[in-house]
Design brief:
Structural class: alpha/beta
Order of helices and strands: HHHEHEHEEHEHEHHHE
Strand order of the largest sheet: 3-2-1-4-5-7-6
Radius of gyration: 18 Å
Distance between the termini: 31 Å
Number of domains: 1
Number of strands: 7
Largest sheet: 7 strands, mixed
Shape: globular
Helix content: 40-55%
Number of helices: 10
Strand content: 15-25%
Length: about 290
Amino acid sequence: MAGSRRPPARAKARGYDRARAESYWGEERRRLKDEFKIVLSAGEPDHVNAAYHLWETMTLVRALAPRRGQRLLDVACGLGRVSAPLALSGATVVGVDNAFLMARAARAKTVRAAKLERVKVKAAYVQGFSGALPFADGAFDAVLCLGLLEHLPAWLQGATLAECLRVVRKKGAVYLVLNNNRSLLLTAGSDNRHRKARQLPNGYYCGLVDRELLVHGIARRGAKVEVLGSNAHYSVLRHALHGRPLPRGASRGAARAFGAAIERDLADAAQGEFGATCADHYFYRITRR
């Protein structure tokens, strides 16, 4: 971890205040205690967040095949949900987060996991701004940017993607998860009343990403863009049950149903128009040529 003191707050830039965002994610959000509620969805039951985590991490691991010697960067690493397990694979992992307390917690999680598994890991965590990553050109074999861009304004989404591509080596890949602005379910807006595409007074920002515009722009600049999957089966079930209290004793059945939905999403990566109109998220691999 670089540094032992919290750095001074940065000035506001183009309607987005980094310091307020840091306070929200590093302090307010962490009061929820549960890791998935902190970094995934605060308003969903445990089994819903666990199912999403399974879809995202399984899609990533299948495509990335983490192994010893790989140099991986996790942008917006949060509490180490993804970076800590990757470090156990033998890969050299660096996590960066705008919130200093998040990066510090991710480091502690990785240390605990290494002790539990009795393995040595190569991992480091730093505070940094996704629009100006503090790393050299081509420093990493792969860069992970999972679910970050929906929490950034459009100008910063573009800057973040450009930085991810700058720090990945030629023939290396950026693994990118975007929410889906074509989804009829997400655009209904009934599951997150704070998804307003502007920063709220407490520092929270959430909006729908224009995923097609983003990835088409990347492709035009010469990168290879591949869809690794989308999560339409999970999403249909999530929206159908959202806000409806389950009968007593039904949580296990709901967890099994979400597990089955994720199995179908993982088996059916090419979801076509079903994915385009119903999936909450798309998972991309962007290879730098």
